[in-house]
Amino acid sequence: MRYFVLAILLGAAATAKPAPIIQQFNVTTIKVTHADAVASIGKNFGYLRADEGKESIIALRFGGYVEKLRATETYQHISKGEVIAEVYSPEVLQAKEEYLSSLKYNAIRPNPGMVESTKERLIYLGVPMSEITAIEKTGKVASTTTVRSPASGYIFEKKIDKGSAFTAMQPLFRIVRLDPIWLEMKFPPEQLDRLKGINDYEIRISGIERPLYAKRGKIYPNANPSESTLTMRFSLPNPKGTLFPGMYASIVPMMQTKGTLVIPRNAVIRKNGKWYCFKKGEFEGEYEPVEVALQPITNDRYAIKGGLNEGDEVVANALFMIDSDAQINGNF
Fold this sequence. Notes:
Layout: H1 2-15, H2 21-25, E1 29-31, E2 33-40, E3 44-49, E4 55-59, E5 64-69, E6 77-78, E7 83-88, H3 90-108, H4 112-125, H5 129-138, E8 144-148, E9 153-158, E10 165-166, E11 171-176, E12 181-187, H6 192-196, E13 200-205, E14 212-215, E15 218-219, E16 230-236, E17 248-264, E18 269-271, E19 274-280, E20 287-296, E21 301-306, E22 313-315, H7 319-328
Antiparallel strand pairs: 1-22, 2-17, 3-12, 3-17, 4-11, 5-7, 5-10, 6-9, 7-8, 9-11, 12-16, 13-14, 13-17, 15-16, 17-21, 18-19, 19-20, 20-21
């Protein structure tokens, strides 16, 4: 009896048909379709730098020396209107006293022209209006003059210390606002025509997890002779202050494509320097290797430039097993 059962099993195995590939490998297929896509074209690199239009130089219209210094550190952040120094100037002190004298004289013998001329001198010297008003209200003159920041930002340059002497129009501070901030992208001249036709750029900055996006920027009208490169400048918003000059960035031009034939990357295999898809045949489990011309458009999709048509069905998984089967059957 045991030998009889064994004989039946062996006979059944001998007569059984091999399962088609789709059953053996659990193959799934997808259809080639048209879709709008964004193609990444190469990669360029650059660095962040401060926006020149957001820099403020503090220089006074009079000479003197520093009594008190509130902004004591380079890269210290200060707000607009914040007091950064108190300075003494013999010229300003004399002008204040003349204004006070004109006010007192005007109270006895009205002479508004004299009052106005002495006041205009203080305004010309850059004395804050709050100090001029204080003279009018208190009848007293402060020996020092306050220097306030004209803008919010970081102190990138500080040329004075407590007790330092300075001359009229000498730069004392350079204050830089970092919102927005510039990104300068370097690229070879042969890319110029192509980049002029691309509007969208994906930007990845070292240390920043999420990518940023920008429209085509300004191209500088000069080349760097030592690097043989041109420069495109982007202006990036920086409301949270997470971007700083000197940070490194990679920039990918993104070209919009309309109605492009696309397939996922997992539907393609590379062999001997060529790209192949496995196109579904007429019969169940039959797949034919087809050479295709591709262009990468995203991390997970290719644009089809040749070899397939819309509606063709291709294998989307288990490509290495399908490839082995194709080699065994002599399809390559």
